Amino acid sequence: MVKGVLQMKKILVLHTGGTISMSENEAGEVIQNEENPLLKLTHHFDFEIDLVVEDIFNLPSPHIAPQHMLQLKNRIQKAVNEEKIDGVVITHGTDTLEETAYFLDLTLPNNLPVVLTGAMRSSNEIGSDGLHNFQSAILTAASDNAKDKGVLIVMNDEVHTARYVTKTHTTNVATFRTPTFGPIGLISKNHVLFFQELIAQTTADVNELTEEVFLVKAYAGMSPLQFELLDHPKTKGVVIEALGAGNLPPQTLPAIQKLLDKNIPIVLVSRCFNGIAEDVYHYIGGGVELKEMGVIFCRGLNGQKARIKLLIGLSAGMHNQELAEFVNNATS
Ligand SMILES: NC(=O)C[C@H](N)C(=O)O
C-alpha cells in the first residue's frame, strides 16, 4: 500500500440463494436461477469497494440447515485468518435468515462486520428490493461503525441485530423487525447511521453439531402427548414457546418432568411476539413452578433462535449449569 493512500475495503460476498437470487416465470411462480442475477447487476454500484464474490450455495432458505450455517462460519473464519478481508456480506433467503444470522452471531468471535441481506421480491419483479438491499449491506459491511456490533441484518434501509430481529410478514418488504426496541441503525441514501448497540454476549466455538433439538409451541388445552413423543433416545434438547410471560397448561407437566429426569434440557421462551419470559406466575404450570422443576428460561429470544442457542450450547459440550447460564441470555 502506498503511504498516505487509503486502501480499498475488501468485502467477502457469499451468495447462498433465496428470493434475492430467484426470478418470476411467466406463470408468476418464483423459481431458482442457475446463475445469480446479482452477478450481472453490480456495475450499478458507484462505490470503490473490492468485492470477492462466491456462490457458496444456491438454495431456497427452507433448505438451509445448521450444517450449512457451520459451513458459512468456517468459510468466514478462513477468510478472516488468511484473506485480509474487512467485512462479509451474505445474501440469503428470508425464511430462515434470522436463524443463520444468529448462528453466526453466536459462533464468530471476531469483531469484523458480518451483514446478512435478502429480498422479498425476486430479481425481475417490479419494485424488486434485492439490488438495493445488497448495496445497503455492502455499505454497512464496509462501514467502520459496523465493527463490534455482532452479526447484522440489513433490509429495507434498516440495520437490525441478529439477536433480536425477526421476519414478521410473509411478503411485505418491511418484513424484518425488532419488536423489542427497533432497528439499531438506518441507511439514509448511501450513509449508514447507528443509534444504539447491544450488550456483548458470550460466544461459543463449534466444529460439529448435535442433532435433534426440538421446538414446540404451547396452546390452550395442549396435549401432553407431544412431550411424551419427545421422550426418545435421540432427543438432545427441547425449546418450548410457552404462553404469555412463561406458563404452560398443567396437564403437560408430568411429561416435561419425565424429560427433565432424563437430563434432557428444556428451554422456555414466550410465544408472544414481544417481551421476555420470566418466572412471574405461581400456580400449577406457572413460570415459578416450571423454573423450580429445572426448566431454563431464555430471555428475549424467539423460539427459533432459542433453539439455535441450545443447539450451539450442546454442540460446544455444555451441560447443566453452564448450559443454563449460556442459554439464559441474561446480562445482569
Ligand atoms: N424472500 C425469500 O427469500 C423467501 C424464500 N422462500 C426463501 O427464504 O428462500
UniProtKB/TrEMBL annotation:
UniProt GO molecular function: asparaginase activity
Any Pfam family matching the protein: Asparaginase
Residues reported in the UniProt entry to bind substrate: S61, T94, D95
Keywords: Hydrolase
Catalytic activity field: L-asparagine + H2O = L-aspartate + NH4(+)
Entry EC no(s): 3.5.1.1
One record GO biological process: asparagine metabolic process
Residues covered by the L-asparaginase N-terminal domain: 10-198
Originating organism: Holzapfeliella floricola DSM 23037 = JCM 16512
Active site residues of this protein: T19 (o-isoaspartyl threonine intermediate), T19, T94
Family statement: Belongs to the asparaginase 1 family.
Residue span(s) of domain Asparaginase/glutaminase C-terminal: 213-325
UniProt-recorded name of the protein: asparaginase
InterPro entries: AsnASE_II, Asp/glu_Ase-like_sf, Asparaginase/glutaminase-like, Asparaginase/glutaminase_AS1, Asparaginase/glutaminase_AS2, Asparaginase_C, L-asparaginase_C, L-asparaginase_N
